[in-house]
UniProtKB/TrEMBL annotation:
<dbReference type="InterPro" id="IPR020555">
    <property type="entry name" value="MECDP_synthase_CS"/>
</dbReference>
<comment type="subunit">
    <text>Homotrimer.</text>
</comment>
<keyword id="KW-0150">Chloroplast</keyword>
<keyword id="KW-0479">Metal-binding</keyword>
<keyword id="KW-0456">Lyase</keyword>
<dbReference type="GO" id="GO:0046872">
    <property type="term" value="F:metal ion binding"/>
</dbReference>
<comment type="similarity">
    <text>Belongs to the IspF family.</text>
</comment>
<dbReference type="GO" id="GO:0009507">
    <property type="term" value="C:chloroplast"/>
</dbReference>
<dbReference type="GO" id="GO:0016114">
    <property type="term" value="P:terpenoid biosynthetic process"/>
</dbReference>
<keyword id="KW-0414">Isoprene biosynthesis</keyword>
<keyword id="KW-0934">Plastid</keyword>
<dbReference type="InterPro" id="IPR003526">
    <property type="entry name" value="MECDP_synthase"/>
</dbReference>
<feature type="domain" description="2-C-methyl-D-erythritol 2,4-cyclodiphosphate synthase">
    <location>
        <begin position="75"/>
        <end position="228"/>
    </location>
</feature>
<dbReference type="GO" id="GO:0019288">
    <property type="term" value="P:isopentenyl diphosphate biosynthetic process, methylerythritol 4-phosphate pathway"/>
</dbReference>
<dbReference type="Pfam" id="PF02542">
    <property type="entry name" value="YgbB"/>
</dbReference>
<protein>
    <recommendedName>
        <fullName>2-C-methyl-D-erythritol 2,4-cyclodiphosphate synthase</fullName>
        <ecNumber>4.6.1.12</ecNumber>
    </recommendedName>
</protein>
<dbReference type="InterPro" id="IPR036571">
    <property type="entry name" value="MECDP_synthase_sf"/>
</dbReference>
Length: 231
């Protein structure tokens, strides 16, 4: 998420109350089936109503024509991508771990590129809007937020939809610093935040061959693919 900030300040309210504060009475316009193609019941859809910009609601409405299928998918796959600019004077937080470096992410929350893209992968698998729409960077509430808050909310939504993590594969892309000494700590913390067995959480890291902003230590990016399974 491009505008999430660098700060490790923890937010005290629970993730669900934070999310509920984003709620309005306008529901998503998903098919009026008992259980829709996303695996959500109408009761659940009410709790997922969002107050994000009208353009978002309009695009959801126009793209969500009623469909005949009422089956609940046994598996759902999701992909997440995130990139942040690196600037001197900020901490580098990856997967909730403070990594020693000469620069970090300038963003609205703590700028945790890995957690942001994992959240987007979960939301994508559930067929929900992206992290920027659910936690808008225009909202001062998220300034300096620890990204673990976003993970907890995504896990709550996954659980509510009746899914659990099958497995997750993430790739960090950065030129410096070397991630190998921190990889297991990051992976272990990510597993903990997700409430998942470490054996289903995989983390890879690679450089960008000194090419472009990623390769010039001016940015950091991450990709995540996740498989959710119906509980
Ligand atoms: Zn981000």
């Amino acid at each position: 998420m491009g505008a999430m900030a660098t700060c490790t300040t923890q937010l005290s309210p629970s993730s669900s109350s934070l999310f509920r504060s984003q709620i309005t009475k306008r529901p998503f316009l998903f098919p009026p089936a008992k259980i829709d193609r996303h695996g959500f019941s109408p009761r659940r859809l009410k709790s997922l109503s969002l107050s994000h910009r009208s353009s978002v609601s309009a695009s959801v409405a126009s793209s969500a024509e009623p469909e005949k299928s009422t089956r609940t998918l046994p598996f759902r796959v999701g992909h997440g991508f995130d990139l942040h600019r690196l600037e001197p004077g900020y901490p580098l937080i990856i997967g909730g771990i403070d990594i020693p470096h000469d620069r970090g992410c300038e963003a609205h929350s703590d700028g945790d590129v890995l957690l942001h893209c994992v959240v987007d992968a979960i939301l994508g698998a559930l067929g929900l809007p992206d992290i920027g729409q659910i936690f808008p960077d225009s909202d001062p509430k998220w300034k300096g937020a620890a990204s673990s808050v976003f993970i907890k909310e995504a896990v709550r939504l996954m659980d509510e939809a009746g899914y659990e993590i099958g497995n997750l594969d993430a790739t960090l892309i950065l030129q410096r610093p070397k991630i190998s000494p921190h990889k297991e700590t990051i992976r272990s913390n990510l597993s903990k935040l997700l409430g998942a067995d470490p054996s289903v959480v995989n983390l890879k890291a690679k450089t960008h061959e000194k090419v472009d902003s990623l390769g010039e230590n001016r940015s950091i990016a991450a990709h995540t693919v996740i498989l959710l399974m119906k509980k």
